[in-house]
Structures are given as structure tokens and as C-alpha cells.
């Protein structure tokens, strides 16, 4: 059975930077995969 959408997002693990592995403080639905230190845009 499909679980509650809110519970699904609450249970997602924290995102990690693809370059340094540091935890990224942003929303889970964001497509970014690098932290502010590693982001060169």
C-alpha cells in the first residue's frame, strides 16, 4: 500500500554532497547535488 506522502519525505535520508560527502542543508526535492563549498556555478 502507498504510504502517506508526508511520511515518505520525512523518512528520506539527508542529501550528501557528490564531491566531498558533506551533508547538504536543503530540501529533498532540490536537484542540486553539491554543497555550497563545492558549488562552482
Helix and strand composition category: little secondary structure
Number of strands: 0
Distance between the termini: 41 Å
Number of helices: 1
The portion of residues assigned to helices is 10-25%
Please indicate the count of domains: 1
Strand proportion, as a percent range, falls in under 5%
| Approximate shape | elongated
Uncertain runs with pLDDT below 50, 5 residues or more? none
Q: Give me the strand/helix succession.
A: H
Roughly what is the average pLDDT, rounded to an integer?
A: 80
Radius of gyration: 13 Å
Biggest sheet: strands, sense, closure? none
Protein name: YhfH family protein
Pfam family, one: YhfH
Structure description:
This protein is largely without helices or strands. It has one domain. The protein has one helix spanning 5-10. It is elongated, with a radius of gyration of 13 Å. The N and C termini lie far apart (41 Å). The model has no long low-confidence stretch (mean pLDDT 80).
Which terms summarize this structure?
single chain, 41 residues, little secondary structure, 1 helix, 15% helix, elongated
Summarize the structure.
The protein is mostly loops. It is 15% helix and 0% strand.
Describe the SSE topology:
Blueprint: H1 5-10
Amino acid at each position: 500500500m502507498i504510504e502517506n506522502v508526508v511520511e515518505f519525505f520525512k523518512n528520506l535520508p539527508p542529501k550528501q554532497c557528490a564531491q566531498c560527502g558533506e551533508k547538504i542543508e536543503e530540501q529533498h526535492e532540490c536537484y542540486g547535488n553539491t554543497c555550497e563549498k563545492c558549488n562552482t556555478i
